[in-house]
Specification:
Length: 673
């Protein structure tokens, strides 16, 4: 059944009040752009257009997409459904994030197979995200119209959804696609259920078969949404909630058949939740201290108040986002260590009292059930991100608010229409808010143009964020700006000193600049600490670089053990293999040196330093013909290397004297991990 024409009296099935027209006196209300309500949300979606040209892979995109064999379509379909979002097995002893999103992974795989390996770049992937967001924005508009909300307010609310600044992370940052995909299924189910309710409102009793088909459809869409993002399963809770706010026309009692449908939806939710729990073998995952510091505090009151403040901060982001951040890690949002005595507890009270006031208003005699429905869409998908039932891997995640902003749009339209019956200020306020959203959204999209621009903007807004300062230092390090990198790394350590990964980055800068004693001090500090930032997948870096530093300082015997341990975890480190061969050669263990250097050439066969060092081992062992071949290859690849030239001159002298007149030189090289 189509929505009523503007100005007509609808058959109310959701709200007790009459259809409320907005005042027509303001010039804002006479704008013709809302005659075609899809135009304004579409124009707002153009704000994201610049991101389709961004060619850089950001942060976790490297692990979730580029290096993920599942996302590249290189693994069997069955394996995709038994791995987490990052390509790690859900079952077994290996670490897993417990983020089960196979359909989101398959969306990348589909694009990879369509584009091919040569064109598998961020730009077309972000284009898909932008198109998906446009589709969701238009579905939000359709949902609002299905709720009998006025065309102008539906258009305005859909535009607020389209231009909301927190959505930048869902579109530019490929990891955020999962939330948008799940919301797409959520919106389809909501529209289908509302249309079904409208079709049944004239019937005394809705057809049983139609009710069963509706529950099956919502269950199917909930399953699909859940396979995109965890919060998708809460769609069935929303389905039950929608039934429980459905009323008979011009009556306050529940619509016929609403209670059985609600119960069936909740039972189906319980079944799907249990299946997902079994699939992921629980919901607990060992998230790091830097990412989720609240859970590690030993005082339960501090944890409780800190989580509650995170809820209020999400509320602020939902209504009027200020400075945004790619990662609210330690200590961007400090813990409420003073609990209720912290002034920020007022924000908690404000958020929850506002929520209760709107719920009370929606349930009052003159209230609007559509307002209550909007509040449900805010709260229900937020529950998985609230840390109430299981721990979330981020302190605050802007992308997690994507489905909640649908509810915010519904609340804005319902409140605006109700308050704007005889007033023009609500629409003016909404227009001003849209202007703020457009400006902040465009600004945020521009900040994501590169890693350097993103981290610099976030470091200015969030100077106490450990990860932001660390990542900015990493960008400077990659650019060869050593002193700038050291400045940012040290700024990060001033916030959290026990961060081994940052100390390791500083040590790498010192190695590259020849300050080996300072590098050794950093490694000794790391080994005395808790190893924050290192785990099974990257521990090899620490030990290989520590051993390399010992070799550079002439501590050859001490260097062998950490080098061998690091290379046993990851042998594909040519500079580590070379350093280990260097140490063995200096200790006159020529056979071991030859084996290690040969292994290094397996991973980097065109490395002139390794060839030169292997030639030195052969020279010392008296294999002069092999040494000549090794030096020839080294000089072919790097003809101006003074160490290789020196060794070649020594070998030339052997043909005249029959022996080495000087000790040949070994060389080191270092590569960033």
């Amino acid at each position: 059944m189509d929505a009523p024409a503007d100005g007509a009296q609808p058959k109310e099935w959701l709200s007790n009040g009459a259809h409320e027209e907005s005042a027509q006196t303001s010039w804002l209300h006479r704008l013709d752009i809302t005659r075609l309500p899809w135009i304004l949300p579409t124009l707002c979606c153009l704000l994201y257009l610049p991101c389709v040209t961004y060619s850089e892979w950001y942060i976790d995109e490297l692990f979730a997409v580029l290096r993920n064999e599942d996302a590249r379509g290189e693994t069997p379909l069955s394996q995709v459904f038994t791995n987490d979002f990052w390509g790690n097995p859900l079952w077994g002893k290996s670490w897993t994030h417990k983020s089960y999103r196979p359909l989101a992974v398959l969306s990348f795989s589909w694009q990879f197979s369509w584009l091919g390996e040569d064109l598998f770049r961020p730009q077309p992937l972000r284009t898909f995200n932008a198109a998906l967001h446009l589709a969701n924005s238009l579905l939000v508009l359709a949902l609002l119209r299905e709720l009998d909300l006025h065309r102008r307010w539906s258009c305005m609310a859909a535009a607020l959804f389209a231009a909301h600044p927190v959505h930048v992370e869902n579109i530019v940052y490929l990891v955020g696609r999962a939330d948008a995909l799940a919301t797409f299924g959520w919106l389809l189910a909501a529209i289908a259920q509302i249309r079904a309710r409208r079709a049944w409102q004239a019937s005394e009793k809705p057809p049983r078969l139609a009710c069963a088909l509706l529950v099956m459809l919502c269950g199917l869409l909930a399953t699909v949404s859940c396979l995109c993002k965890e919060m998708g399963i809460t769609l069935l809770v929303f389905t039950a909630g929608l039934e429980l706010v459905s009323c008979k026309p011009r009556q306050r009692c529940l619509a016929t058949g609403a209670l059985p449908l609600a119960v069936a939806s909740l039972l189906l939710f319980a079944v799907l939740a249990s299946l997902r729990f079994m699939m992921t073998q629980g919901s607990s995952a060992a998230f790091g201290f830097v990412d989720t510091p609240v859970q590690y505090h030993d005082n339960w009151q501090v944890r409780a108040w800190s989580y509650l403040f995170q809820h209020s901060y999400y509320g602020k982001l939902l209504v009027l986002p200020g400075a945004l951040s790619w990662d609210y890690s330690f200590d961007a949002i400090p813990l409420l260590r003073a609990t209720w005595r912290d002034v920020r507890s007022l924000g908690v009270l404000t958020a929850y009292l506002t929520l209760l006031a709107m719920i009370s208003r929606s349930l009052s005699a003159g209230g609007q059930r559509r307002l209550l429905l909007g509040l449900q869409v805010i709260v229900i998908p937020f529950v998985p991100a609230s840390n109430l039932f299981f721990k979330v891997g981020v302190t605050v995640g802007e992308r997690l608010l994507y489905p909640c902003t649908v509810g915010a749009a519904m609340v804005a339209a319902a409140l605006g229409q109700h308050l704007g019956r005889r007033r023009s200020w609500p629409f003016r306020l909404a227009t001003a808010l849209l202007a703020v959203y457009v400006w902040r959204c465009g600004q945020r999209v521009w900040q994501w143009r590169s890693s350097e621009a993103l981290y610099m903007a976030d470091a200015l807004s969030w100077p106490t964020s450990v990860k932001t300062r660390h990542q900015l230092g990493t960008v400077f390090h990659q650019q060869g700006q050593s002193e700038e990198a050291l400045r940012e790394f040290n700024a990060s350590l001033m916030i959290l000193d026990d961060n081994a990964l940052t100390d390791h980055c500083i040590a790498q800068v010192y190695i590259e600049t020849g300050r080996y004693h300072l590098a050794l001090e950093r490694f000794e500090k790391i080994l005395r600490g808790h190893g924050v930032g290192f785990s099974a997948f990257n521990l090899w870096m620490l030990y290989v670089d520590y051993g390399f530093t010992l070799v550079a300082l002439g501590k050859f015997q001490e260097a062998i053990q950490p080098l061998e341990y690091g290379l046993s975890r990851n042998a594909a480190v040519p500079h580590g293999q070379n350093a280990l061969g260097y140490a063995y050669a200096q200790l006159n263990q020529l056979q071991e040196a030859q084996e290690v250097l040969a292994r290094g050439l397996e991973y980097d066969p065109d490395n002139p330093v390794i060839w030169s060092n292997l030639a030195v081992v052969w020279m010392v062992a008296g294999a002069f013909q092999q040494a000549a071949q090794g030096l020839e290859k080294a000089l072919t690849m790097e003809p101006n290397n003074p160490v290789t030239i020196h060794n070649a001159m020594l070998l030339k002298g052997v043909s005249e004297t029959g022996q080495l007149t000087q000790q040949p030189r070994l060389d080191l090289f270092f590569s960033k991990n």
